[in-house]
Amino acid sequence: MNIQPDPAGKHVEHQHTDKGYVPVYTTAVVEQPWDAYTAVDHNVWAQLFERQRKLLVGRASDAFLVAQDAMGMTPDAIPRFDELNNILQKATGWTIVGVEGLLPELTFFEHLANRRFPVTWWIRRPEQLDYLAEPDLFHDLFGHVPLLMNPMFADYMAAYGRGGVKAHGIGPEALVNLTRLYWYTVEFGLIRQADGLRIYGSGIVSSKGESIHCLESSAPNRIGFDLERIMRTRYRIDTYQKTYFVIDSFEQLMQATAPDFAPIYARLATQSSYPAGTVLDTDTVYHRGSGEGWSQDGDV
Ligand code: HBI
Ligand code: FE
User: Fold this and answer.
1) From ligand 1's centre to the CA of 105, what distance in Å?
2) Neighbouring residues of the ion ligand 2, judged by CB less than 5 Å
3) What is the set of domains in the chain, with CATH numbers?
4) Ligand 1: which atom is nearest the Cα of residue 17?
5) Any atom of ligand 1 within 6 Å of the Cβ of 182
6) Closest ligand 1 atom to the C-alpha of 105?
7) What is the pLDDT of residue 26?
8) What's residue 10's pLDDT?
9) Which ligand 1 atom is at minimum distance from the Cα of 109?
């Protein structure tokens, strides 16, 4: 961990993870400085919110859209964390807490295990509208927070946090395996609905380009959820994903993460990991059919 003074005066520790360099800021929880947001900040929120909501019709999962509406989020202004917490806490016991940015993994896991989701308090600048390297308020609030209204997903996220605290105690390899699970579900997951594949991953729903790419491009693979397959699959943080994993339901996600992962980590430690674009003959691969149709391998 090398500590370098950050231009903004915050101490930034650079931490090596599977994502390469992840800037890690202070672990402090901060109050949302709502009165300090400028008209430019509120306008960035409004532009991103309206653009994504238009894009997500027919692309985001029903569960995501229903949850976001239930949160009462609008493009009118950056939402107030305390108002969202009144709604969220009643629904699933989760609350959001303001932070400076990415947290050390153990701190992050401890928050999740206690049903607290850390939300970056600042929003990107207008010139960063289409991409920025680390999660800002829009990525966290628009992308991650709504699904915490969904009881099953909310339970999964808390279980994930408990698993993260345990993995941290086991060691760095276990952590890398578990971070891949977060990446390919919470950040970039797809879910199968009767009317086709849909998005639930926060990294996708908060990204204009990837909301389209993940379902409509012929480039990426779309592979049925398999816990150990995911834990063995590397990923990149600076490009669109080469592979998206598809769950059937949040119940499936919850059941898959119920068992103790220690024996899985032990098994994975003896096996090599897969490059992000790998397709195995044991994979269930989804192919884009005509129109809305998606077919799996072996479908007639
Ligand atoms: N910190 N604030 C914040 N938000 C995240 O999503 C986050 C984090 N720290 C670590 C992290 N995510 C990932 O490495 C997880 O896979 C643990
Ligand atoms: Fe995220």
Assistant:
1) 6
2) 135, 202
3) 22-290 (1.10.800.10)
4) 14
5) yes
6) 10
7) 79
8) 43
9) 17
**Structure confidence at residue 238 (pLDDT):** 84
**CB distance 135 to ligand 1 below 6 Å:** yes
94: Cβ below 6 Å to ligand 1?
no
The three-state (H, E, C) secondary structure of the chain, written as one string: CEEEECCCCCEEEEEEECCEEEEECCCCEECCCHHHCCHHHHHHHHHHHHHHHHHHCCCECHHHHHHHHHHCCCCCCCCCHHHHHHHHHHHHCCEEEEECCCCCHHHHHHHHHCCEEEEECCCCCHHHCCCCCCCCHHHHHHHHCHHHHCHHHHHHHHHHHHHHHHHHHHCHHHHHHHHHHHHHHHHCCEEEECCEEEECCHHHHCCHHHHHHHHHCCCCEEEECCHHHHHCECCCCCCCCCEEEEECCHHHHHHHCCCCCHHHHHHHCCCCCECCCCCCCCCCEEEECCCCCEEECCCC
Q: Is the CB of 102 under 6 A from ligand 1?
A: yes
Per run of 10 residues, the mean pLDDT along the chain (length 300 residues) is 39 50 77 97 98 97 97 96 98 97 94 98 94 91 98 97 96 96 98 96 96 96 97 93 98 93 96 97 88 67
